[in-house]
């Protein structure tokens, strides 16, 4: 047999050999679905003499497309590069660049991104006299997007809306929006698919051309296709009906983008003659990792039942670690990777850190940089390179030092102040001829010729910066940052957008605020300049020499289809994952099931080692919050876990801290077991701590106002005030050496002396 068929099990081989007719391969993670597709393409070319250009393979991300092309090229003798391997969107761009004129567009059409769409919809709302304070622009965009995902055009939308005032208005906005797109010869992202479907439906020449061209069509990650994408595939495949789709309903994680899980569940209804193949052997992970994954996903209802097995042995158990703070969690992950690499057990590239939201990367990045560990963020950029973080850090730079021209120019029109390029040139010319820097010149905007109305706008900007400087001098860095955020309406603007992307940006801003507050609490003499220096140390990592060996960081969504020997799932806390939004949603049951599928995707990325971590306390919007372990972790069968299941042990950990004075309870309890800890603790104290935990987790303090206390960094001082902040006490201490400091009791870890 050939190498193409040799390396497959019987069911996989069946998938490769069943080249004719519709095929559905429905199988769990790591069972070799993607492998079947690549081997199938290779088999068609090498064994069946199919011309490579007659084969189409659709993937979900560009990275997946690249990998698939590479794998096919390795398997076939020649011609692999002529296979059509692309994502849905790039496939449609390719088709439309050729035939867009047949649906009324010029083939040099532009593709509108989110920002373009926003400004277009703004114009439309203005034109239609819609009060965007009541009817948000963003909500129109999401209605339009949803309609397009379901192939509903503006006219149909309006017909269906008849009699419903609200829907009718949405339809009018949709119609106008679409008309303007067309007038601009532009397509938005959803149009790419919908217009291609329109083209194939309406134009028999083009339809037949592609139907004749593609003898074999394959779709990976089929569970995440939406209605429009399904229709596209169906149209293309209607000539030969050689359509092979592979997917896993347990990994459907894009429902919020219109992915229609029924596409997979109902494939057999669309294609009654479909051959259904199930793959049950997992080749990726050890048994313990699989047991964990199966245990978690079993809690979802209405699944197609699948059972995965492996013969790769038990392997290591899933390591569970719960820390006092997210800070310690990040430190642990970085140290763990550093020591594995030092011991030669893994390379950096074998390791991946996966998290629920992008904002979580900040702490991890800082620890990785501190440990000199190369890393790369996939599906996003480094924390300090994110637009909103850069904007606000630039504001801080301007507040600190207005000679930083780059920073000044960056924020001058954030948010838009209508200060145009001509005005800026005039300011620059004035600066040049008077030997001033740009900012100084702006302070004299009133005297600069030809600025007209821009002068007032510039002076308003200057006064914002000056006021922020006063806040800085009187109340510190975090307050001046908050002042800027408030005065510029930065977060307000994002809130109004209401998209997932905007929410992620707000998360990042919150994370920056956390960073500043912690910096102020932990630094003896905090200064803005010193803070910015710290930030630039992490931010400049971008300029470090590119290495091919790096740790991969990404959200769980971006991790789909990938695999790594050593995986860390971090931030496994209720409220973070599953997200607070899903827990509190009206349809919480469904939302949590979607989050659970995401957890399943995360767990099944690991080949050999899986470490699951959580923090008991995490700073959220500048406030310490207690978090209990993610319910998904509690769903992992105990026999697959190494580490104590926390709920019954949290009280132990706290008791341990109280008995022994300030120490890291997590370290103690990760090493020892609960019984040992309990032995060291008097029954009474244990009970008190346990009870206290039930009251919200605040530690009882063994000092009061007036007591002398010791702090690790600041030395000795006297407690001057104690405020019960709900989740934690705010303690103010007058230190002998550094003066008065306000801190969270849990963080300060003060000792009475
Ligand atoms: P996911 O659902 O996560 O996308 P998948 O079902 O697509 O997973 P693959 O990525 O194709 O799974 O395969 C998982 C791993 O198992 C890969 O490293 C692949 O090379 C390996 N593998 C698959 N089938 C076999 C086989 N028959 N023999 C040896 N290794 C295999
Ligand atoms: Mg796959």
Strand percentage lies at 5-15%
> Could you say which structural class the secondary elements and strand pairing correspond to?
alpha/beta
By CATH, the architecture of the largest domain is named 3-Layer(aba) Sandwich
**CATH fold naming of the largest domain:** Rossmann fold
What is the H level of CATH, i.e. the homologous superfamily of the largest domain? Answer: P-loop containing nucleotide triphosphate hydrolases
Biggest beta sheet summary = 8 strands, mixed
Family: Belongs to the helicase family. UvrD subfamily.
EC number: 5.6.2.4
Keywords: ATP-binding, DNA-binding, Helicase, Hydrolase, Isomerase, Nucleotide-binding
Binding site for ATP: 27-34
Descriptive overview:
The protein is 50% helix and 15% strand. The protein is α/β, with parallel strands linked by helices. A hairpin with a 2-residue loop joins strand 14 and strand 15 (623-626). The protein has five domains: 10-99 and 194-281, P-loop containing nucleotide triphosphate hydrolases (Rossmann fold); 110-184, Orthogonal Bundle (Arc Repressor Mutant, subunit A), CATH 1.10.10; 318-382 and 541-654, Rossmann fold (3-Layer(aba) Sandwich); 385-525, Orthogonal Bundle (PCRA, domain 4); 707-752. Magnesium ion is lined by residues 33-34, 220, 561.
Question: Keywords for this structure?
Answer:
eight-stranded mixed β-sheet, ATP-binding, Rossmann fold, 753 residues, isomerase, 5 domains, binds adenosine-5'-triphosphate, Arc Repressor Mutant, subunit A, 21 strands, six-stranded parallel β-sheet, alpha/beta, binds magnesium ion, 34 helices
